[in-house]
Amino acid sequence: MHSVHARSRHPVLLWCLAFCGAMIVAALVIHKFDLSWAGTLAVMLTATGMTIPIVRAAERSARVEGNLSPAMRRYNRRMVAGSLFYTLGLFLAVYAYKNWAPAGAVLWGLALLPALGALAMVFAMARLLIEEKDEYLRLKLAQSALFGTGALLVLATVWGFLEQFRLVPHVPAWAAIPVFVIAIGVSRCLTWARA
Questions:
Q1: How many angstroms from the chain centroid is the CA of residue 193?
Q2: Are 87 and 50 in contact (CB under 8 A)?
Q3: Any idea where the domains of the chain sit in the sequence?
Q4: 122, 177 contact by CB (below 8 A)
Q5: 95 closest CA partner among 110, 81, 109, 106
Q6: What gap in Å lies between CA 147 and CA 124, rounded to an integer?
């Protein structure tokens, strides 16, 4: 039985590695080449879109292991939608800011547009904790969220002091959500690897 679980996890690991590679390649391509806004958006949506096969592989693995709940399926779809909306909102806001010179309420709306995707992801996390009926799975989710929160607080505090003394560059506050989500992902991977 253990070998069946291990085999069901291989595609998830491969897709996660492919996603990390795609994000690195996307960052290098965007940095190296002048792709215009459309090219940059296409590269980032392609890399971000790789979350879909990761989610599908993870759901297949969870189904084999017998722990795919309806709440987790809804969460996965909400997170994919939130991350894609975040990416689209970010590029639309940056493009509009650079090319249309908006002001007033339009500028405020554009500045907040990417935050809607981030808020959708936070909403998805909260709904998962509310909707998940299995106490053990809820405990694991709460532990992952606590790990993510702790990692974010530690990293922000250490970086803040290093930044205060001009040892590292400034990082914008919006980086908190990606750091939090990545830390949750690391926590889940560690839990998943130990199981």
A1: 20
A2: no
A3: 1-68, 74-130, 134-195
A4: yes
A5: 110
A6: 17
